[in-house]
């Protein structure tokens, strides 16, 4: 990968900003979890009350001196800010603190770099890293001036900084072309699934809500699942069988987070499209999390950004084993449609209810019909048996075969059209009057 991360175990000082604006305030506990997920050895945690950020350092000069002393005391390798720094602020802080400084976006990018396993995932992370790095190139080249002339020293006529930016632009274009190819391949696979009328259910939710644990149990898979932020990065698709629905595709996707960097949303567009093109979203929520309402709002925000908010959503409240006196159950709306399921994926509680709710939501268009077939229509009878639609058969009084059918209306329509029938015309001629 073009931009490799440092090895874990670096001694880090965390700087959390407390401000008046609730919209931009970050969660300090989540900040600690992010740092731990990145493999940082947290030496100190500094909270700064700053209502009007300084253009030069973000924090005040007094806090910079306090931070200098803390870096020296703990021999820290790294200072991480729970805020988005401008390139100049990052550069100024590094000059004063004499160590590396990264912001919240850089921290999340580093975690993504560790988690990426597939070629596509690594490309997506690299694209986001390079995009982020391109605005900060000056940090690495401040000691260089225009390349010197003289015998053996005449340069190509551009500064080292300009050369590096040009190389970055070329690499970004190259990765973008590759990801467009991946996106095209994904769209082709989605078209194939649509032609086969296989419904897609996509797991979405705040990071560490338990999506991968639920995915593993429902699909009997071994996707990496851990109690850490962004344990899953690469999308995984598995085939499952749902009663009364038949085969379906379950997709596990990257978790969302507060103020997810826009660069990551853009870079992971191909991955997130698995959610935006799904037939049903399973919104997995940590029922025991005190901030679950805020996390739900963040997920809704990202779903809106990727154009998936209008899709049918089934909420799955996970980790009920951490709550007292709560049993697995399905909550329904006034029409009796499942809207919320309470389960514990880790303890295996209520998972059959998730499958039941999925089947009901996907199978709302399941039709039940009794049809009468002539003996000459034996091929059509065989087709109904082949798709598992026949739940009963007997001989009618007039000698025709009466089949009791139960299947998705889309499957019924597709099967008849393949045999040269219009569904409405077929039902008029083949049902009991």
Automatic annotation (TrEMBL):
Cite the binding residues for Mg(2+): 212, 232
Q: Which keywords does this chain's UniProt record carry?
A: Coiled coil, Cytoplasm, GTP-binding, Magnesium, Metal-binding, Nucleotide-binding
Localization in the cell: Cytoplasm
Q: Which residues bind GTP?
A: 205-212, 230-234, 252-255, 318-321, 344-346
| Gene Ontology molecular function | GTP binding; GTPase activity; metal ion binding; ribosome binding
Coiled coil region boundaries? 158-192
Query: What cofactor does this chain's UniProt record say it requires?
Result: Mg(2+)
The cross-references to InterPro entries, in alphabetical order and at most eight, read: G_HFLX_dom, GTP-bd, GTP-bd_M, GTPase_HflX, GTPase_HflX_N, GTPase_HflX_N_sf, P-loop_NTPase
Keyword Nucleotide-binding appears in the UniProt entry = yes
Question: One cellular component GO annotation, for this chain's record?
Answer: cytoplasm
The Hflx-type G domain extends over 199-366
One Pfam family hit: GTP-bdg_M
> Entry's PROSITE patterns?
G_HFLX
CDD domains, alphabetically?
A: HflX
Function, as annotated, reads: GTPase that associates with the 50S ribosomal subunit and may have a role during protein synthesis or ribosome biogenesis.
**Subunit structure of this chain's protein:** Monomer. Associates with the 50S ribosomal subunit.
**What's this protein's family per the entry?**
Belongs to the TRAFAC class OBG-HflX-like GTPase superfamily. HflX GTPase family.
- In its UniProt entry, what is this protein called? GTPase HflX
Q: Which species?
A: Halopseudomonas laoshanensis
